[in-house]
Amino acid sequence: MKTRFVLIHTSHAGNVGATARAMKVMGFGDLVLVAPRWANVLRREETIQRASGALDVLNQARIVATLDEALDGMTHLCATAMTPRDFGPPTRAPREHFAALLGAPDSLLKKELLAPAGHGLEADLASKPEGVAFLFGSERFGMQNEDVYRCHVALSIPTDPNFGSLNLAAAVQLIAYDWREALGGFAVQPATPEPQLADAAAVAGMLAHWEQSLADIGFLDPASPKKLMPRLNQLFNRAGLSPEEIHILRGVAKAMRQKAVQAAAKNTAPADTPARP
Amino acid sequence: MKTRFVLIHTSHAGNVGATARAMKVMGFGDLVLVAPRWANVLRREETIQRASGALDVLNQARIVATLDEALDGMTHLCATAMTPRDFGPPTRAPREHFAALLGAPDSLLKKELLAPAGHGLEADLASKPEGVAFLFGSERFGMQNEDVYRCHVALSIPTDPNFGSLNLAAAVQLIAYDWREALGGFAVQPATPEPQLADAAAVAGMLAHWEQSLADIGFLDPASPKKLMPRLNQLFNRAGLSPEEIHILRGVAKAMRQKAVQAAAKNTAPADTPARP
After folding, report:
1. How far is A183 from chain B (nearest CA, A)?
2. Which of A85, B13, B102, B223 has the smallest number of Cβ neighbours within 10 A?
């Protein structure tokens, strides 16, 4: 399946560069500009600065004069439009539309989506599209009606009804993210190795160690223990201790006990008074 | 539940403005800057330009000297960090983490998420957090280790392993979007009224009209109709016709028939030859 991002009549060079970067972090590279304000927009300083290394996307990008020339090979056209229209393709949130388009495993979702609409989506479901194009209008005026009419769907990113002013490159970033996730997504690289959990026996052994030491230092009264140990047990259960942390906590218990023993020895033989005669 | 975005040691004014805008479109307004590069960053021209109307977020934003001062009232701290670390909180994709944190209806997902990790997440599930803070490091160096260590989770936005260079404000936009969606999301305002579907009887009536007209214009041979009408029936089923479209298609059939009748009349009485003697 091919994916293309089409910017129509874009006026800010920075947005073109930021769009290239937003596409590339999500693994997309096919960018077409329809009649941008600046003919040399792909080589402008601001474009290159905001692209921040996504230069291959800029280098491969095409500039064309009309939307027709931008759509070769594309079979499913997604408008991104905010302005209400009296007529046009169905309006959908991107995440739900992509799930329906690609055949989400959750068939309930699909039914829910398709029941009220029925227009166009069944066709997509019958056969997954070979080429999906995302069309973005100009910063100031959005998409023209005649361009929206060509599309299979109008994607609307769910924003605060009181402030829907999404930056163009931010919109590209969100659509690229949702589309990449719908296509299966990239794996998150765990920065730290997944920790192992200590088993219940190890936790119980550590708690017994602590119980003894807390008595040694005089915090726990064995004659009236109350709920102290069960409370600590619950705390450590929630934390999910690793074997290494059991080791640390046993070290703390050991040190408490040693200090208690030292203190007891001092009480019977204070350091400033030689024990020997 | 309170939500706060915390930018630590941010150096580009444009990113502060774009962050305010990214937050506001997703309905968030609590922004704290920890020791930004420019003390007057909230009033710089580039900040205000890129905020594009999200001035209330800038006006309410606080600048503080240390991370400690930024975290009052926050009970769940999310680092956003890309650099691998040998130690620290578990790394999670935002969408999955938010579902677990808020108690996703899909308990299978939750189990899957928690089984391998177990660290910290159970605690969050036991009681939903009162304040969630998202921490973002500087553009060049990301977050410092000691700041990451304080966090409950390290969120990693799934990006192309070959190009993970996400712009700071773009990262804020994606996190704000995923978090808003996890919190229930904003409704998508349908730009067009949901179309009604024509019922099967209306479709069959229109097709009968077309069958007649297609014969009239000589495209359909009634003696050998082949699969033409069933094919058109399938095509219109996939399109999901509205009553208005039935009306249009019947108009087309009617016009075809009229033209066929005119042509037949012309054939018997050519215009350039007066019919009368």
Report:
1. 12
2. B223
